[in-house]
Design brief:
Layout (H helix, E strand, L loop, with lengths): L3 H7 L6 H13 L4 H11 L5 H13 L3 E4 L7 E4 L4 E6 L5 E5 L2 H7 L10 E6 L2 H6 L1
Parallel strand pairs: 3-5
Antiparallel strand pairs: 1-2, 3-4
Helix pairs in contact: 2-3, 3-4
């Protein structure tokens, strides 16, 4: 289990109940939109406002605690920051699966005269579960 208090402190943020609740919500889901985070967190903290969620999400992105995952035609999702990886996004059910970037894939991503500092790649398709329903 992730130590959310330590994660926040390591990134120069005060460990508040709101922030730890948001991180726990995102971590449990893997990838969550702000609306999904709000619905999940307000079950435990009913007085928490949507504005507070937005404010804390923006701050935690700026401090490198979480990452925004933009998705074509939908609201962005958010995840805890981790090593660079590829997102496999099912166009049928909307689930997102993380796939590690291996050394071979890093070679594919290398671009002459351009040093990549981080990568976020979204690949869209149909997941195995949805393929079996077709």
């Amino acid at each position: 289990m992730t130590d959310y208090i330590e994660l926040l402190k390591k990134n120069d943020l005060k460990a508040t109940i709101q922030r730890t609740g948001i991180l726990k919500s995102i971590d449990n889901a893997g990838h969550f939109s702000i609306d999904e985070i709000y619905e999940d967190v307000k079950e435990h903290y009913p007085t928490l406002s949507l504005a507070t969620i937005y404010k804390n999400i923006i701050l935690m992105i700026q401090q490198g605690v979480i990452v925004e995952v933009p998705i074509n035609g939908e609201k962005s999702k958010y995840e805890l920051k981790k090593d660079d990886h590829i997102h496999l996004i099912c166009k049928s059910c909307g689930k997102i699966k993380d796939k590690e970037i291996t050394k071979e894939k890093e070679q594919i991503l290398s671009i002459e005269n351009f040093q990549i500092t981080n990568a976020q790649i979204n690949l869209y398709g149909i997941c195995k579960e949805c393929q079996s329903k077709i």
